[in-house]
Design a protein that fits this description.
It is built from 8 helices and 13 strands. By secondary structure, the protein is of the alpha/beta class. The strands form 2 sheets. Strands 1, 2, 3, 4, 6, 7, 8, 9, 10, 11 and 12 form an 11-stranded mixed sheet that branches. Helix 3 links the parallel strand 2 (about 45-50) and strand 3 (about 75-80).
């Protein structure tokens, strides 16, 4: 059974100021997401599922899905604020989405096979899709064994400012021990450093594995998420900014020894438009990859 690619795109409309401005950065106007779908298909993924918001369904289907439909089976699911377990009611003050793992939970009814989760607006690189696809094919039929692509920190920095990254601690067999979100990482005088909440700086090694939100799961992950989301809501229903993130869920599974997560190394270089000033660099990097023959001039 081929794995499924699950694309988190619910933040897309607000982030880009509407889908009409969905940024074409490739030589033929491709979006970063187009490259992810292309890489996933050649790595052996068999289906693509998008999680979006209902309010831009029409736009999304016309502008985005129509591109892929001839190449791969596509499904769409919806993340809405009021999609809560029985007994919980949305507070009127809540405007912020419930977070990445809440978005993942929306795939439960349409994903019955091993699946990878990615962000819509990150460029992950060809090798990363191959690495995670191969691992997910291995995991077909198993339970409680997950994976994550661990990028080398030096391959994920922005030239234009600081970045936030999930810094991973792994054991001697490359299984994940913890993920800590560091919200301010940058190169200072040639050395990669992060700044903590008290404004102290600490060095990080060049090859420190970091999470770029490229995870691999098997379907029972949905059931664990459903159960743990109830506990999350018990503690956070009154906190209108709290989010149910994937690392929060994963950490719960690790602490309680319910599942393990293999960290997969990749030499791929991540890039994305973290800052508006990053855009010309992204356009150039994609052009260079096309010129080298890594991608065709027109993807779909």
């Amino acid at each position: 059974m081929k794995p499924t690619l699950f694309v988190l795109a619910a933040g897309m409309g607000s982030r880009y100021g509407g889908l009409k401005q969905l940024d074409g950065v490739g030589p033929s106007g491709e979006t970063i997401m187009d490259y992810s779908i292309f890489d996933a298909l050649r790595a052996g993924f068999g289906k693509v599922v998008f999680v979006i918001r209902k309010d831009f369904e029409k736009d999304f289907k016309e502008k985005i899905i129509s591109k892929y439909e001839k190449s791969v089976p596509v499904e769409v699911v919806f993340q809405e604020l009021d999609n809560l377990p029985a007994g919980y009611k949305l507070a009127p003050e809540r405007v912020k989405p419930w977070g990445t793992n809440h978005a993942v939970m929306m795939g439960k009814d349409v994903i019955k096979e091993p699946f990878a989760v990615i962000n819509a607006d990150d460029f992950y690189g060809r090798e990363s899709f191959k690495v995670i696809a191969d691992k997910l094919k291995e995991l077909n039929g198993s339970k409680n064994h997950y994976c994550m692509v661990g990028y080398r920190l030096c391959n994920t920095l922005s030239e234009k400012g600081s970045v936030a990254r999930g810094v991973c601690e792994v054991d001697e067999n490359n299984y994940l021990k913890s993920v800590v979100e560091r919200t301010h990482i940058e190169r200072v005088d040639g050395v990669i450093k992060y700044k903590d909440a008290e404004d102290y700086w600490f060095d990080l090694a060049e090859n420190t594995p970091v999470s770029m939100n490229m995870w691999g799961f098997t379907p029972e992950y949905f059931d664990y998420s459903d159960k743990y989301f109830v506990k999350f809501l018990e503690q956070n229903i009154g906190n209108h900014k709290a989010e149910f993130f994937i690392p929060l869920m994963v950490e719960h599974l690790l602490i309680n020894k319910i599942a393990d997560v293999k960290v997969l190394d990749t030499s791929s270089k991540w890039f994305g438009v973290t800052y508006a000033e990053d855009r010309p660099s992204v356009v150039q990097k994609l052009k260079d990859l096309v010129d080298k023959g890594e991608y065709p001039n027109k993807l779909f």
